[in-house]
Write a structure and sequence with these properties.
heterodimer, A: mainly alpha, MetI-like fold, 69% helix, globular, B: mainly alpha
Chain lengths: 287, 266
């Protein structure tokens, strides 16, 4: 097999999850939502914060989705409102992977008291209901994007740590790891060059699920009004602040709710098909 | 408030009160110039939350068992695909999205159910069932979907084992094989699921009560966070966490009772 054919084969292998119906549907729905969130602001006809109409007026030529509680254009607010949830949830997930991943690698590789100490700490964190933890944190730290991101990351990190610890433990008894140790390589080099590349697939299998959970937590806290503050445009916040106008202009609830639903469903479908393609069965449970 | 004493003293005073069922006084009460015991304010809300959680569990368990088993028996066929993809989709939805869409359908369009579930302090929520329907439906979504997937996974595995085949070869009716032989061991991995469901239920109750303005513990907690009533938040959080751990324990015991295999293993 030529090098090019081999590369094409490995590429095809990597994107095998797209061949399944759920994978393809999830992928394209996710692209759609990402496009709306990323490019939306460039197409917004009005300012997302400027009142220009009668509150809760129904759709018209001027405002295709009508107006919200303060007479702002719903379409413009929706087009602006996807960035925050994706950015905050994305950042929280990455932080969770950084912290939880490091803890899991160290715990799985250490074979000393470090392992039980880290993992029992993780158990304690897991045993506290996620949303409750974030609410208590916000009570102490005040409402801010930093508190929200930190809260979601802390809730997710121990779950990442558990998965990575198991995967690392599995790899650390393999011959190539022992060979590296025998060559006299340092712990850090062994972890980075020998173990990390081999635990990528459990990370990939789990990533969609973690990201979905982050989106749900971030959106829920924003819905409580305890994350982003008005006049920020954010899908969850739009739903929360316009609940009273539900019968007057249903679009103001329907569209952002539909977008959040599309985002989380597509993420989970995609995550599920990636997990299946990697040969890992997953029950699709968030935690 | 005992601010003349040291932090350690105040902490043990608070902790001592807590284990004796005294949740302390809310900051809101001091702001009004008197003592306002948190317990008096929340005890009827605890009952309301329990009613909500209880009804949800009563509907969820049989529904999840039924759909999970049906899905497993039809594994790979259209019914199974529909249930699997459907539950995967529902699991991904935040409760406030499910709830908002339900309000949209049942209040804005059909106008058959109320969008808010305000209930007076001395009224039993069970006497106003129409106000409970939408909150319960909202809570059912995520918890049922998660359970269905776990029951299905356990069932598919057990249906392939030798003892199920043996039971079938003995000529037992399929219903007997499924509900007496297979289901028990299919539930063995469910310990974590039950635990997880309680986690979903607590998170879900906080969101759902806030969404429907249902006077329960979750709504009270979010309101307390909103006005930064640290005293109330810490007591409520401790209380909810304690209930959570207690329910986990109960769930573990129930599963051990149900699944004979787990009784002997130490």
């Amino acid at each position: 097999m030529s090098a090019a054919a081999h590369a094409a084969e490995s590429l095809r292998e990597r994107f095998r999850f797209l061949g399944t119906a759920t994978g393809a549907i999830g992928f394209f729905l996710l692209l759609l939502v990402l496009a709306i969130a990323a490019l939306g602001p460039f197409f917004a006809p009005h300012s997302p914060t400027e009142p220009i109409g009668v509150p809760f007026e129904r759709p018209s030529a001027e405002a295709p989705l009508g107006y919200d509680v303060l007479g702002r254009d719903v379409l413009s607010r929706v087009l602006w409102g996807g960035r925050s949830v994706l950015a905050l949830a994305g950042l929280a997930t990455l932080l969770a992977y950084a912290a939880g991943g490091l803890a899991g690698l160290v715990a799985g590789y250490s074979r000393s008291l470090v392992d039980p100490i880290i993992m029992r700490g993780a158990d304690v964190l897991i045993s506290f209901p996620a949303l409750l933890f974030i609410l208590v944190l916000i009570t102490g730290a005040g409402t801010s994007k930093a508190a929200l991101v930190a809260g979601v990351a802390i809730v997710q990190a121990p779950l990442v740590a558990r998965i990575l610890r198991t995967a690392t433990l599995e790899q650390s008894v393999r011959g190539f790891v022992e060979a590296a140790v025998a060559r006299g390589e340092g712990t850090f080099a062994v972890l980075r060059r020998e173990i990390l590349p081999n635990v990528v697939s459990p990370i990939a299998a789990d990533f969609g699920l973690r990201f979905t959970y982050s989106v749900i937590l971030v959106a829920s806290v924003n819905f409580f009004g305890l994350g982003l503050q008005p006049p920020d445009a954010d899908w969850a916040l739009i739903i929360s602040e316009n609940r009273d106008g539900l019968t007057l202009n249903p679009w103001v609830i329907l569209v952002p709710a539909g977008l959040i639903a599309t985002l989380t469903i597509s993420l989970n479908l995609l995550g599920d098909s990636v997990a299946r393609a990697l040969g890992r069965s997953r029950a699709g449970v968030l935690a | 408030m005992g601010l003349d004493r040291s932090a350690t003293e105040r902490y043990f005073d608070w902790l001592g009160g807590l284990v004796r069922g005294d949740l302390g006084n809310s900051a809101a009460g001091y702001a009004q110039g008197g003592e306002l015991p948190i317990w008096n304010d929340v005890k009827w809300k605890i009952r309301n939350s329990l009613v909500l959680a209880g009804i949800t569990t009563l509907v969820m368990v049989p529904l999840a068992l039924l759909l999970g088993v049906v899905s497993a028996l039809r594994a790979g066929r259209p019914t199974d695909h529909a249930i699997s993809v459907g539950s995967l989709a529902v699991i991904s939805l935040p409760e406030f999205v499910i709830g908002s869409l339900l309000i949209l359908v049942f209040f804005a369009w059909l106008d058959v159910l109320p969008p808010v579930s305000l209930i007076a302090p001395d009224v039993n929520p069970l006497s106003e069932p129409s106000k409970l329907v939408l909150p319960v439906l909202t809570l059912l979504g995520v918890t049922t979907a998660a359970s269905i997937r776990m029951v299905r996974a356990g069932m598919v595995e057990v249906l392939g084992t030798g003892y199920v085949q043996m039971a079938r070869l003995n000529g037992f009716r399929e219903r007997l094989v499924v509900w007496r032989y297979a289901i028990r061991n299919a539930l063995a991995p469910s310990v974590q699921v039950f635990t997880q469901n309680i986690q979903f239920l607590i998170g879900g109750i906080i969101v759902t009560e806030f969404l429907f303005s249902y006077p329960g513990l979750g709504k009270e907690l979010v309101d307390a966070v909103n006005i930064r009533d640290v005293r109330e938040v810490q007591s409520l959080a401790m209380f909810i966490a304690a209930v959570y751990i207690f329910l986990n324990l109960v769930a573990d015991l129930i599963v051990v009772l149900l699944v004979p295999k787990l009784r002997t293993s130490a």
